[in-house]
Amino acid sequence: MKGHLLLPLLLLGTVSALYLENDTLHLGSQETRADVSQDLESSGEQEGELALKDVVLESEGEGEEANNSSCQDTFEDEEAMESDPGALDEDLQCPREEDTVQIPRSPGCQTCRRFLLVRTLRKFRSAQNVCRRCYRGNLVSVHNLSFNLRIQQSACGINQAQIWIGGFIRGWFLCRRFRWTDGSRWDFGYWASGQPGKGRGRCVALCTKGGHWRLARCKRRLPFVCAF
What we know:
Elements: H1 2-70, E1 100-103, E2 115-122, H2 124-135, E3 138-139, H3 145-155, E4 162-170, E5 177-180, E6 203-207, E7 213-216, E8 222-227
Antiparallel strand pairs: 1-2, 2-8, 3-8, 4-5, 4-6, 6-7
InterPro entries: C-type_lectin-like (IPR001304), C-type_lectin-like/link_sf (IPR016186), C-type_lectin/snaclec_domain (IPR050111), CTDL_fold (IPR016187), EMBP_CTLD (IPR033816), Eosinophil_major_basic (IPR002352)
Protein name: Proteoglycan 3
Organism: Vicugna pacos
């Protein structure tokens, strides 16, 4: 009798165990799908954020390129520029000693740079190349009135109205800035009346009478001053 009762109980227990196992597997699959779905959503959000960042970076890059392109130096035929050592004149010849004038240094300053007035007429770019190639220097930069007058006094004896110094205009429109060929700071100006606003050209010439500055076309041939 007891054996007949035990058999149904064992069968019932087995069936219950099977149902419980199936339920557990079913719940586990639901939780797993929910976790996977959540992971996919979060990964999708991350990819979306990364994509957005890429777009922002690209747009920022495009903005920078646009700004840079609008500020690019386009000197065209004027060629007011910092000289490229690789663009030296093929037929460039260094000035003869008799074609140069030494500009006195500051009194008592033996370690100061040397300044040389070259009488030979050159375009602005060519003059800068002479200073670079022949004297390992640049067209002179002028940072105070006393030095400006010293240059003017040394140049007033030559039969020319103007001489090149190292100033030039870089850039266009809102990006237009005055620069020196030696890269020094633009911290002084001695402009003639109406200059530089009414000036024609992009390179700076010093007037041998009075020492004032004027803008001149860079292709003009003028004497020049080198600093080295």
